[in-house]
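Thread: Modeling a multi-component assembly for a lab meeting

Hi all, long-time lurker, first post. My supervisor asked me to bring a structural picture of a complex we are working on to next week's group meeting, and I have zero experience with this. I have the sequence lines for every component (286 residues in total). Could someone generate the structure of the whole assembly? Inputs are pasted exactly as I received them:
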Amino acid sequence: MNIGDAAKASGVSAKMIRYYEQTGLIPPADRTASGYRDYSDKDVHVLRFIRRSRDLGFSVAEITELLALWQDRSRQSADVKALARSHITALRQKIENLQQMADTLQTLADCCAGDHRPDCPILTDLETDDDDLLVVKPRTGAI
Amino acid sequence: MNIGDAAKASGVSAKMIRYYEQTGLIPPADRTASGYRDYSDKDVHVLRFIRRSRDLGFSVAEITELLALWQDRSRQSADVKALARSHITALRQKIENLQQMADTLQTLADCCAGDHRPDCPILTDLETDDDDLLVVKPRTGAI
DNA sequence: GATAGGGCTTCCCATGGTGGTAAGGTCAAG
DNA sequence: CTTGACCTTACCACCATGGGAAGCCCTATC
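Re: Modeling a multi-component assembly
Sure thing. I ran the full set together rather than chain by chain. Output:
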C-alpha cells in the first residue's frame, strides 16, 4: 500500500507519516523497487494507534512510550495507567489555566459597556501594574 | 533604562522584548550612543500591557489590535469587548477539547486494573479502529 | 590605568506538530 | 506516448520562547 492509501486508511496525513518515520516514532517503512514507501495493514494499525493517541492529546514522546507498552506482551497495565493518569493531570492543569483566563476575561467583559464610548475596564485591567495576575478577585479599583 | 532593567520591571524577558521589536509589535527602542536599547517608564508600561495580555492568552496578533485600541483615544469599548469575547470563545473551545480528552482518558483509566497484568482497556481503546473519536460513550466492546 | 565581571549587541539554532511548495521520478490509464 | 495522479526529497513557515556564541561596553575594584 502506498503512503497515500495508508494515510487515508489511518487518518494520519502522508506528511506526518514521513515525519513520524524521520523522528523515529515508527521504523522506516519498506520500500518498493522504485523507492516508494510500502505499508501493510499492520503498519496502518500502528498509525491508527498513533492518531488515536494524538487525538487524546498525547505528545509524540508519550506515544513512543505507549507504543512500547502496547507492543510489550509482558507489560503491566499499571504502567499504562500511570502514563494515562500523568497525562490526565497535565490536561487538567492546562484546562485550569485556560479556565482562569476565560473567567478573568469574562468578568472584565461583563463590566465593559461595549458601546461607542472609549472607557473600557478590559483595557484598564490590562494596563494595571498589578502582578497578581489571572486572579478573578476584586482588585483595587480595577474591576 | 537598559533592556535588562526593562525586562525586570515589566516581566517580559529581554529576549522577548527584542523579539517584539523585531516583529513590529513595539516600535524600535531608542538607542544610547553605544547602541544599547534605552527604555522609558512609558515603554515599560506598554511591555506590562503586553505581558498581561499574554497572560490572558491573547496571541501577539491580537495584542497588536489591543495595543492599537488602547492607544486610540477615540476607540469604542464595543470593539475591545468584541475582541475579548472572540478570545473567550476560542478559550472555551480549547477547554472543551481538552475536557473531552481528559474525560475519555479518565473513563479508560477507571476501567484499567493498573496491576501487574498486561490487559489494559486504555491500550485496547487506542488500537480500536473506531473513527468516532473522543466520545465518552459506550463503544462496542472497547469500554 | 588595567583588569574582571556582568550586561549589551547580533546572529544562529531548537523546540513541536503541522502545512505548503517546488523539482523531479514513477505508475497506470487512455 | 502522453497525461495526470502519485511518490520522493528538500526546503520554508508557523508561534512564542529559550539557549548559546562571539564580540563590544560599562562599572567597580585594585
